[in-house]
């Protein structure tokens, strides 16, 4: 398959075999890219998020079924309010643009209470509008934190059990690993590959519960410069790591 940011061609059988069902991306390095290029932080975020539609097309063409994008962490909300406001505007534009393509099935992952009302409304609307799309599922991790996701899942389970009239002891017995997984992952397969850009070599709690079997790939490329060659390098790493060892079965989810 031809490389480059706009290259396309027929994918080979070997390329198809190297592709995980669920790939997660930590979109890191927008602000550092902006510094290198003499741009503002907001311009860095705009440059980074403008890459998303093309990267999703590559993933779709290669046969990935689910992509989870970490667009905004709960920690990011502590930044300068002006930068956060600009980020929310840019992300809202991205969400609406992805829905307009009428290709992906979009869904929000994150702490709903932390998402500003205009963006939350947009997320709910695009989720409803794209639910019947037959293309790749795209999870948008916005105001997301791994610990918060697990905490919220446990809270929702306990609230549900309380509503059923269960005693605290019985409710506690029902909070199993399987129940938490179901609350978090719904019908998503377990992530098999997590990619982080910008050179940072840590997961920062991304998909803390469900990605325990995932391979991790770290690239020094800043997200705004992430191209097809970078994606292929990540998939090559995944293929090499997966070859000759037991993989998570396609239908499994973390338990």
TrEMBL record:
Gene3D superfamilies: Decaprenyl diphosphate synthase-like (3.40.1180.10). Coiled coil: none annotated. GO terms for molecular function: ditrans,polycis-polyprenyl diphosphate synthase [(2E,6E)-farnesyl diphosphate specific] activity; magnesium ion binding; Z-farnesyl diphosphate synthase activity. Pfam families: Prenyltransf (PF01255). Keywords: Magnesium, Metal-binding, Transferase. Homodimer. Catalyzes the condensation of isopentenyl diphosphate (IPP) with allylic pyrophosphates generating different type of terpenoids. This is Isoprenyl transferase.
């Amino acid at each position: 398959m031809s490389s480059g940011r706009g290259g396309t061609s027929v994918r080979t059988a070997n390329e198809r075999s190297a592709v995980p069902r669920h790939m997660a991306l930590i979109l890191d390095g927008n602000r550092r890219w902006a510094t290198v290029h003499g741009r503002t932080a907001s311009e860095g975020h705009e440059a980074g998020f403008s890459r998303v539609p093309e990267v999703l097309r590559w993933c779709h063409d290669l046969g990935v079924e689910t992509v989870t994008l970490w667009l905004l962490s709960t920690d990011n909300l502590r930044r300068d309010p002006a930068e956060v406001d600009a980020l929310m505007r840019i992300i809202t534009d991205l969400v609406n643009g992805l829905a307009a393509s009428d290709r992906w099935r979009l869904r929000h992952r994150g702490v709903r209470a932390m998402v500003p009302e205009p963006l939350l409304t947009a997320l709910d609307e695009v989720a409803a509008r794209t639910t019947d799309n037959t293309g790749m599922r795209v999870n948008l991790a916005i105001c997301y934190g791994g610990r918060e996701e697990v905490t919220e899942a446990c809270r929702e389970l306990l609230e549900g059990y309380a509503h059923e009239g269960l005693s605290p002891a019985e409710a506690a017995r029902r909070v199993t690993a399987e129940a938490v997984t179901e609350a978090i992952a719904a019908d998503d397969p377990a992530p098999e590959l997590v990619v982080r850009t910008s050179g940072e070599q840590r997961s920062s709690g991304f998909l803390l519960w469900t990605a325990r079997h995932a391979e991790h790939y770290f690239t020094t490329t800043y997200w705004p410069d992430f191209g097809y060659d970078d994606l292929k390098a990540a998939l090559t790493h995944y293929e090499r790591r997966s070859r000759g060892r037991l993989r998570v079965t396609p239908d499994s989810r973390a338990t």
